[in-house]
Design goal:
The complex is a heterodimer.
Chain A: H1 4-37, H2 42-47, H3 53-63, H4 69-81, H5 95-130, H6 135-149, H7 152-166, H8 181-215, H9 218-225, H10 230-267, H11 273-282, H12 286-314
Helix pairs in contact in A: 1-12, 5-6, 5-8, 5-10, 6-8, 7-8, 7-10, 8-10, 9-10, 10-11, 10-12, 11-12
Chain B: H1 2-19, E1 59-64, H2 80-89, E2 94-97, E3 100-106, E4 116-118, E5 121-127, H3 147-158, E6 172-178, E7 181-186, H4 192-195, H5 210-216, E8 231-237, E9 241-246, E10 259-264, H6 268-276, E11 282-284, H7 289-296, E12 301-316, H8 326-335, H9 338-345, E13 350-352, H10 368-373, H11 382-392, E14 397-404, H12 407-421, E15 425-432, H13 434-442, E16 448-453, H14 458-466, H15 489-497, H16 501-517, E17 521-534, E18 537-538, E19 558-559
Parallel strand pairs in B: 1-10, 1-11, 14-15
Antiparallel strand pairs in B: 2-3, 4-5, 5-7, 6-7, 8-9, 9-10, 11-17, 12-16, 12-17, 13-17, 18-19
The chains are: A mainly alpha, B alpha+beta.
Amino acid sequence: MLRAGEKAMIAYILRRMLVSVPILLVVLTLVFLLVRIAPGDPAVAALGDYASQEAVERMRQRMGLNKPLWMQYVDFLGQLARGDLGRSLINDVPVSQQIRRVLPYTLELTGSGIFVGLLFGIPLGIVTALRRNTLLDYAGRIFGLAGLSVPAFYLGILLMLLFAVELDLFPVVGGGELSDLRDNLHHLFLPALSLGLIMTAYITRMARSAMLEVLNADYMRTARAKGLQERVVLIRHGLRTALIPVVSVVGVYSIVLIGSSVMTEVVFSRPGVGKLMVGAMKQRDYTTLQSIMVIYASFVVIINLITDIAYGLIDPRIRYE
Amino acid sequence: MKKLTVVLTILATLALVQCGPGPASPTAEPTEAPVVEEEEPPTEEPTEEPEPTEVPEQVLRIAFDASDLSTLDPHFAAATQDRAIVDMVFNGLIRYKPGDISQFEPDLAQAIPEPTMEDGQQVWVFALREGVMCHPWNGNEGYELTSEDVVYSLEKAANPDRSAYAGEYTGMTFEAPDDYTVRVVLDEPLSPALLLPKVTDYAGGFVVCKQAVEDLGDEAIKTHPVGTGPFRFDSYTPMENVTLAGNEQYFRGAPNLGRVEAHYIPDISSRELGVREGEIDLAEGLREQPWIEKMEGAEGVTVDVFGPGETVVLHMNQTVEPLDDVNVRQAIAHALAREDFLAFFGEDTADPLYSPVPVEFLAGGLTMEEVEEAGVLYPTDREGAQALLDEAGAESFSLTSNTSERASYRRTYEAIQDQLKQVGITLNLEVVDHSTMHSLIREDANPLIVYIAWRPNADVFLTRFYHSDSIVVTGENPDTNFSHYDQIDGLIEQARQETDPDAQAELWKDAQMQILEDAAAYPLFILKFVFGRAEYVDFGYDLQSTLALYPQITENTQVTR
C-alpha cells in the first residue's frame, strides 16, 4: 500500500506530465511558425549559390514547400502523433535515425559537464564560504564571475589551444567511437571540461551563498553548542540544507548547459544534437529542426520535473499537494 | 577536500591522456583490421632480414566549411562540399586536365572529336573507352559502362525535373548507335568552347550509371552516388562525413589512397587546428591574406591558393531610383577603387577583374588595356563621380542592401560602403545568413548586389547575368540578372551561334563593352580558393586551377606521412 505522501507525489508527477502536453504543443507550434517565418529557403540552401531560379522552384516543389502552411502544419502534427519525426529535407534520412545516432554523444557531454560541475563546484563553494573574505574566497569569486561571463565556444577554443596545440594531449576534432571507451573518453575530455568549468562556476556561486546563509543559522550554533565536531556540524547540518538551493539550481543550469553544449559541439566538431541543430538551421532543414526542438523542449520539461521531485526528496518541508 | 579534489583531477587527466589513441592520431586506423597471415613456425636458422610489415592503407581526411552535404546527385551538386565528392566519384566524356582548366583531355571518351554537319545538324561523335566499370552498389556488382549509360546520363542532365543544369542542354539529342559510341546531335551548331564544357566532368557532364540510378532512385543517389571515378561511395553519416573507398578497378589504375574521408566542419578554428595538429590533412580555409600567412607559418602546413576562383561583381539595379540614371551608375563605378579591394583581401587571394567574363581562364574576357582603350575602365575619380552625381541631381542619397554573413560578401559590401560614403552615398547594410541573402536578392530586394560566382564559359556568364530572360522575378526564366539589363540579348544570341572561336570571342567582348558603357555592373576582382594542407599530402599534379572548387583528389594523390 502506498502511503499518503507517495500517492500525492505520483499524482503530482502525473499532473505535471499532463500539463507538459499543451506546453509541448505550444512550443511545437511556435517552432513550426518561426522556422518558416525566418527568411531563407531550404531549396536555395540545398542547391547552393549556382542554382538557377528554375531549379530552385522545382526543388521547392519536391520538398513540399509549395503546400499551404496549414497543410504543412497538419502533416507535421500527424507525423508526430504517429511517432514519426519525418525525413530530412536535405538528405532524406529519417530524422529519428539521425537523432538516435548523435543523442548518446550529447547526453555523455552534458552528463559529464554536470558531473564536473558538481565535483568541483560544491567543494569550491563550501571552501570559499568557510574562508570568506580570504584570498581563496576572492579567487573563487573571480572564477565564478569569469565562468558566467566566458562563452562556451571561447572557453572551448582556449582549452583546445592549451591542451591540444601546446601540450598535444587531446584531439581537437570529432567525438571518437562510442564503442571504443578509450577513444571516446579521450575525445570527451576537453568538451566536458569546457562545459564543466562553466557549470562549476554556476554551482560554486550558488553553493557559496547557500553555505554562507546556513553558517549563520541558529541550528548550526545549537549543533555546535551540543558539542558536535565541526566536520559533523558542517556536513550533516550545514551541507544538507545548503544543497537544497544547489539542487534546484543544477536543474535550471542543466538547461543552460544544454544550450552551451550546442556551441561546444560545433567548436569541437563533435557529433551531437546541438551540432545537428545548427546544421539544420543553416540548411533550413525544417523537419530536422522541428524534431530537434521537440527533443530539447522535452528535455527541459523532464529536467524541470526531475528537479521538482528531487527538491521534495531533499527538503522534507516540501509537500506534493 | 581540497587535496582530494586536486588529486582526483590529476589522476583523471593522466588516465585520459594514457587511454587515448595517441596525440593527433595522424595515422588513422583503417576501419577494418588488415588481414594478417598465419605466422610460420620459427625456423631453426635465425634470419637477418626484418619481418615484412604491412603497408598501412593511405587515408586522406578533408574538412569542408559545411554542416552537411546538400546533394551528391552530380546533376544538382553545386556547393563545394558536394562538388568535391562528385568529382572523385564520377567522370565525364572528357575532362579538364587535373589542376589546369585551360586544357581538355579525354576521360570516358578515347579522344576529343571534331564536329561534323549532317543534314544541317551538328554532330559530335564520342568513342568510349572499353572496360570502364561502374562501382558496385548495395550488393550489386559493378558493370561495364556503355553508351547506353552515357545517353541516359545526358538525357537526365537535360531533364529539368532531374537536373539543375537542364537549360544547358536544350536543342541537343543523344544517341547510342553501339555500345561504345555516343552521338550528340545539335539543332544549332556550337563552338568547341560552348559544347565541350557540357560533356566534361562538370555539372551536367558527369556520367551516372543507369542501372544504379534506376535501382536506387533519384532520391537515394543524393546520398549514395554511383559512378566510375577513382573513388567509390562507402558511407554517409549525416552532418558528419562521407567516406569513399579507392576504386581498385579504376580505368586509369587503382588510386594510391585507400580511403578518403570528407568531414563537415563549419567552424574555421576547428578546421585550422585540425590541420595544424595532423587530425585533418586538407581543409577549406579563409580566403584572406592574414589566414594564409598564419597557416604558412605553422610547422608542416602549407596553403594552396588556386584558380579560377570566383568573380566578384557589383550589379546595379536599374529599376531603383536613382540607379536608373546611367550617370549615377557611372559615378558609383568611379567612386570605387579596385586596388583597395585587392589590398583588403590580399595579394595572394585576389586578382583585379576588368570585365564580367574573366580573361585569365575564359575566351571572350577583356584585358585591362582593352577596357582602358574603350574608356570603360572607370579609374577611381571621386571628384568626377561627384560631378556625375550633381549632373544627375543625386548629390546624396542612401540605399539599403542585404549581405550574407560570409566574410567574402560582408567585407566586400563594407568596402563598397566605405568608398561610396566618400562621394556622399550612404549604403546601409543588413547582415543576413547566406541562404537568406540568396533568397532575397532573387526577390529583387537589393539595389546594389554583390555576386560572387563562376560560370564555365562566357555564354553562361552573359546569359545568366545580363540576358533579359534572366532578369530576377520578371524575366522569362528568372535567374541572376540583378541589374535588369536588357541591351545585349542580340549579341549574346549571335555569339552563341557563332562557330568560329575568334569571331565568337569578339562578339562576347562587344557585349561586355556595352555592359560596361552602360555601367550595368562593375567587375571588382577575382577571389581565389584557399585550402590548408598538411605537407605530406601530394596531389600528384600541379595545382593551378580547377572547377571542382577544391584541390582535386585523383588516383595519383598520395599521403606520405
